[in-house]
Design a protein that fits this description.
The protein is an alpha/beta fold and 658 residues long. The model has no long low-confidence stretch (mean pLDDT 96).
Length: 658
C-alpha cells in the first residue's frame, strides 16, 4: 500500500529542487486523485520516485497525450520499467502493463479518446435514427489487441455499436471496412513503422479517411473528458466480431487495380517474388491477393508470425535496408527478382528489385511512387482509359518528378500538405462532386445503391465525366494508393500495382531499374534526401520550436551559396492547390532555390523530431531534356553532390538557431 501523503511530499520536494517540471507535478497529482485511476497508478509512480527517475516522470507526465488530427501516438513501454509494470513477465519480455503516464499510450488514454469520440458520434444526427457504429482494427504491436477490445467495450457502454475484427488487420482494410459497412467512424490501434515500444490510436470518419473536417469537434470532445470512469447507459451498444466476408470483400477490391492481368498470370512466378510482412498485418492479405492473381510469392517465414517485439529487425520500417535483409538473402537463395515488404499495419511498402548486374537494389519512396504513377498513366493511356478529367495527388514533400509525369499525360497534379488524410479528403470532395452531378443527370444510378457499391470501372467513368478521376496518389514516406474504395495509403494495394507493373515490364524484357532510368532520361534526374533531427522530451520540443521560429523570423537569402528565390510559409501564407482550394495552415516552411531545388522544414506530427527535405533535380520545371546514358550519369553525379551540400548547409543553419 502506497503512503499517499509521503509520496506527494516527495514529489513536491522534487519539484522544489528542480527535478520535476511544474506541469509534470500537476499531472501526477491529478493522476493520484482517489477514485479516478486504479491502484497500479500510485504504485508505479511510487516506484519511479523511489528510483529517483525524475526524467522518466517528466517524460511521462509533462503534458497530456495530445489527441490531434491524426489521433494519438506515444510510448507504451517506458524507458524505465517499474516492477509493477513488468509484473510476472521476465525482464526483456513485454511488461504486463503499458506505461502509466498522462503522456503515454495506456488503457486510460484509450478510454479517454474513445469516450470523446463516442460523445461526438452520439451528438451527430442520423437520418435513420439508428445508433452510431464504430469499426475497430488493430495491428500486431504490444497491447494492440487489448487496446482494441478496450475501445470496443467503451463504445458499447456509451451506447455505440462496435465492429471488431477477430485478429489483427491492416490500417487500409479498416478504411475500406468503414465505408463498406456504413460505419460512422473507425479506429485503428497502430503506431505504423515506429519502434516496438510505441503504439497509437488513429481515427477515421464515415468516408473512410482520417478525420479532417470534423477533427476540431472530436478533439474538443476528447479534451472535455475529465474522468475515464465509464458512465452507465440504459441501452448499451453491441459488439460484433466481423467474419470472413469482411476479408473477402476487401480482397476482391484489391484485384480491380490490375491493368495487365495476363502478364501477372504468365510472368509473376517466372519473375520470382519474395515477401515479408515484418511480423505485421500484411501476412493476412497480400499473399492471398497475389495468389488470386496466379502468383505464389516466396514468404520469409521467420517474419510472418505476428509479434510486437519485431524480434528479427532493429526497426519494422520497410524503407530500411536492414529490415529487408532477410528477404534479400532469401531472394538470392531462390533467384527471386522482386522483394516486397510491408510495415506492421501494412500501409507502407518497401521494394527491392534485381538490376542488370544481378544486385538487388532498394527503391526509395519517391522512386516507387514515380514508377507506379508513370506505369499506370502510360498503361491507362494505351488502353484508352484516360478519358475526361484525371488527377494525380502528391504531398508537398514528395518528388516533383510526379508532377512532370502527370503533365506528360495531360493529368492534373494536386499537391496537399503532408499526410494521407489530405489525399483522402480530396477523394471525398471528388466523390461528392460526382454524386451531386449524377443526381441531376443520371439519378437512377444512385437510387438503389450507394456510391461505394458501384463497380470500379463505372466509378472511373463517372468521375472522369462529372468530377475528376484519381489515377494515383502517394507520399515520399512509402505510402501509395490509386483507388476510390480505400481512403488511406495501402501497402497491399501498392504491392498489387507494383507486381502488375513488374510483370508487364518483364514481358517486355525490361527491369524495373531500366524503366526508372527511361523515366529519368525523359524528365531529367530527380533525387531527394530527408534529414531528421531527434529531440526527445519536453526540452526537445522547445528546441524544435526555436528552430522553426528562427527559420521563419530570419529567412535565409542563400543556402549553400545558392540564392533562395522565395520562402513559402504554410502557417501564414495562403497557398492554393491546383483545384483552387486553400491549403490548411500548417507549421511548414518551404524554400524554393534558384536552381530548381526545394528545401522543406517541418516538425513531425507523430515522432519527437524535425524533418528537413531536400528535393533535387537536374532541370528546371517543364523541361524535357531527353538525356542519353552519358548525360543521365552526369546528371546523377551532379544532383547527388548538390543534395548532400544542401543537406549539410541547412542542418547547420537550423542547429545554429537553437
Amino acid at each position: 500500500m502506497v503512503d499517499m501523503e509521503s509520496l506527494k511530499k516527495q514529489l513536491q520536494d522534487a519539484a522544489s529542487e528542480g527535478h520535476l517540471l511544474p506541469s509534470a507535478l500537476e499531472n501526477i497529482l491529478r493522476w493520484l486523485t482517489p477514485g479516478q485511476y486504479g491502484p497500479e497508478v500510485a504504485q508505479v509512480i511510487s516506484e519511479l520516485v523511489e528510483r529517483r527517475a525524475w526524467q522518466e516522470l517528466n517524460d511521462r507526465f509533462f503534458e497530456d497525450l495530445e489527441f490531434g488530427t491524426g489521433g494519438m501516438r506515444s510510448r507504451t513501454i517506458g524507458e524505465v520499467i517499474t516492477p509493477t509494470e513488468q509484473g510476472k513477465n521476465p525482464p526483456g519480455m513485454r511488461p504486463e502493463l503499458p506505461a502509466i503516464g498522462s503522456k503515454t499510450m495506456n488503457f486510460y488514454n484509450i478510454r479517454r479518446a474513445t469516450m470523446g469520440l463516442c460523445r461526438f458520434l452520439l451528438a451527430q444526427s442520423r437520418p435513420d435514427g439508428h445508433r452510431p457504429t464504430l469499426a475497430i482494427a488493430h495491428d500486431t504491436r504490444h497491447y494492440s489487441r487489448a487496446f482494441a477490445e478496450t475501445a470496443a467495450e467503451v463504445a458499447s457502454k456509451m451506447g455505440v455499436n462496435a465492429l471488431l475484427f477477430p485478429e489483427d488487420r491492416s490500417t487500409p482494410q479498416l478504411s475500406f471496412t468503414v465505408r463498406e459497412y456504413g460505419a460512422d467512424a473507425g479506429v485503428v490501434i497502430t503506431a505504423s513503422h515506429n519502434p516496438y515500444h510505441d503504439n497509437g490510436y488513429k481515427v477515421y470518419y464515415r468516408d473512410g479517411a482520417q478525420v479532417v473536417e470534423h477533427a476540431d469537434a472530436i478533439i474538443s470532445e476528447v479534451k472535455a473528458v475529465e474522468s475515464t470512469v465509464l458512465p452507465s447507459v440504459d441501452a448499451p451498444g453491441t459488439i460484433t466480431i466481423l467474419g470472413d466476408d469482411a476479408d473477402r470483400k476487401y480482397l476482391a477490391k484489391l484485384l480491380t487495380v490490375v491493368l495487365d492481368p495476363e502478364a501477372v498470370k504468365s510472368r509473376s512466378n517466372r519473375l520470382g517474388i519474395v515477401f515479408t510482412p515484418l511480423h505485421g498485418t500484411g501476412a493476412r492479405t497480400l499473399p492471398a491477393a497475389l495468389k488470386e492473381l496466379g502468383c505464389v510469392p516466396v514468404l520469409v517465414q521467420d517474419q510472418c508470425s505476428p509479434d510486437g517485439a519485431f524480434p528479427t529487425v532493429k526497426s519494422p520500417n520497410p524503407e530500411n535496408q536492414e529490415a529487408l535483409a532477410m528477404a534479400i538473402k532469401l531472394a538470392h537463395h531462390v533467384s527471386g527478382n522482386l522483394v516486397l515488404a510491408t510495415d506492421p499495419d501494412a500501409d507502407r511498402l518497401g521494394v527491392g528489385s534485381r538490376d542488370e548486374s544481378g544486385e538487388i537494389r532498394l527503391l526509395n519512396g519517391n522512386q516507387i511512387g514515380s514508377l507506379i504513377a508513370h506505369y499506370r498513366l502510360e498503361r491507362m493511356q494505351e488502353c484508352g482509359l484516360l478519358q475526361g478529367s484525371n488527377t494525380l495527388i502528391k504531398t508537398i514533400v514528395t518528388t516533383d518528378l510526379q508532377a512532370e509525369i502527370a503533365a506528360e499525360f495531360q493529368t492534373q497534379c494536386v499537391e496537399t500538405l503532408t499526410g494521407f488524410k489530405f489525399i483522402g479528403e480530396k477523394l471525398r470532395i471528388y466523390e461528392e462532386q460526382a454524386c451531386a452531378a449524377i443526381r441531376q443527370a443520371q439519378p437512377e444510378l444512385l437510387q438503389d445503391r450507394p456510391w461505394h457499391q458501384l463497380d470500379e470501372p463505372l466509378k472511373r467513368e463517372l468521375l472522369q465525366r462529372y468530377s475528376t478521376y484519381y489515377v494515383f496518389g502517394g507520399e515520399e514516406s512509402y505510402g501509395y494508393s490509386a483507388a476510390d474504395f480505400v481512403r488511406d495509403k495501402d501497402a497491399n494495394l501498392a504491392a498489387v500495382m507494383l507486381v502488375d507493373m513488374a510483370c508487364h515490364l518483364n514481358a517486355q524484357g525490361v527491369t524495373i531499374h531500366q524503366y526508372l532510368d527511361r523515366i529519368y532520361r525523359r524528365f531529367g534526374y530527380f533525387e531527394e534526401k530527408q534529414v531528421s533531427l531527434f529531440r526527445t522530451g519536453a526540452s526537445g520540443q522547445e528546441e524544435i520550436g526555436r528552430m522553426m521560429a528562427g527559420l521563419r523570423s530570419a529567412a535565409p537569402s542563400e543556402i549553400g551559396a545558392v540564392k533562395v528565390e522565395r520562402m513559402v510559409d504554410f502557417k501564414r501564407d495562403e497557398v492554393l492547390d491546383a483545384d483552387g482550394k486553400a491549403l490548411p495552415n500548417s507549421n511548414v516552411l518551404s524554400f524554393v532555390m534558384a536552381n530548381g531545388f526545394k528545401i522543406v522544414a517541418r516538425p513531425s506530427g507523430t515522432e519527437p523530431k524535425i524533418k528537413f527535405y531536400i528535393l533535387g533535380r537536374s532541370h528546371r520545371p517543364g523541361e524535357r531534356p531527353d538525356l542519353d546514358e552519358t548525360g543521365l550519369n552526369e546528371a546523377k553525379t551532379q544532383v547527388r553532390q548538390q543534395v548532400e551540400q544542401f543537406a549539410d548547409a541547412f542542418v547547420g543553419l537550423a542547429e545554429s538557431l537553437v
